[in-house]
Design brief:
The protein has 103 residues and is mainly beta. It is built from no helices and seven strands. A five-stranded antiparallel β-sheet has the order 6-5-4-3-7, with no helix packed on it.
Amino acid sequence: MAVVGFQDVPHGGQQRIIVRPPVGGWRYKDVATVDQQLPPPGINTSNKVLAAYNYFPRNAGADDLSFPKNAEITELQEETPEWYSGIYCSSLGLFPSSHVRKI
């Protein structure tokens, strides 16, 4: 997913700009390149969950992952029975398992 925006140009009208380039995967990587066709060994990319509820913690720490309802969180890893870690919109973080369901 890429974030695209528009800006005004001097001769009138608007021009499309890329605010954030496409997001990659494979845990801890920001953007995938052509030579990275396979994920690193030991990373299971088939684990995904779908958010059943919003999760926007009020006092979010640096390791919390915020997401809206119906968000698809990838590269899931179970830290404890109550907490998972995963990636959503290129952000890696922890979130409660009660807010998601496995797909």
